Amino acid sequence: VDIAVNTDRPEILVTTIVNVTPDQGDRLGLIEDPITGDDAVEAVVAYYVDPFTGAIMNDPEFPDQPFLFTVVGNPAGGLETLDVEYNPVSKEYVVITKGNDNQEAQGFTFGQPLMGRVNSFDKVLAGEDALVDARQIDDFVAGYDDVSLAISTVNGNILVVAEQSVPDEGEGIISFLLDTELNPLTTNARLDTLESTRDEDDPDVIYSAAHDVFIALTNIDPSTENNRITLMVVQPEPDANGDLVFGTQQVVGTARKTGVNQGHAALVDNPFNGQFILALDYGNGNDGGDLVYLELTESGSFVSTAAQVPYLEATGGDPFNHRHPQMAADPNSDVLV
Q: Does pTM top 0.85 for this prediction?
């Protein structure tokens, strides 16, 4: 499940991956994959929620029923990983997921992203379709795994960051830039430049409005120590040759727990001081996690601004496991959660 908050009107788009059995399809109208027109086995389903009441908004044609619709589907099997963001430039939501291996049987390329553009609910009430467009991003090399996206609030460009299988290397991190209509602005680029032959996992990306840049993050399995977290600045515009413009991949923070892998990092843009807070877990969630306080310099590098501290101390799952930390800022209450 993933959600996106509309910054122009009071609504939230909730997305989730569902297995579409015949009964579910007949009841919810989720049979057809919008891309191929074939019956979907799994689909990304979306619905709008009132943020004040938590209620699902009802279907304009059937006022006593919640309004649910399909964004993308997989006619041959599963979908994996899901991300959704609101684009304040196009006034649309953007959804991304990855079709699993057996999509190839239905004409899809192995392991590529599937993306959709979704209208806000006021346009649905005005008679427009909820789904604006759905497509396979098929102009790039196949073999994708985890996918993530972020959107520039200045020009509406969309940066996709993804894990990708690299022959004879394992997993790398690639990225590409799209316009508001999901058309490619750049070719794909490898972001894992620090030790490109080493394994990379759990990519994510945010957009920093204060600095007008994207920041991609991933963990790396370096040759000299256990897994660490890296950050990299990516520009929201391509260069004159249509190439992605990005900085140096940088390991951030310290290995406070020596001999234990760091992973599953999340980064938040602190609106109260223009800095960043990074959350990470240790040992796949078995050994607690830390907070790292960072500042972005004019040269595009990250420096620590305070001591790295644990948000949870744990060893071997005691007192409990905790993985995939998430953070968000509430500017109305002046707090970070």
A: yes
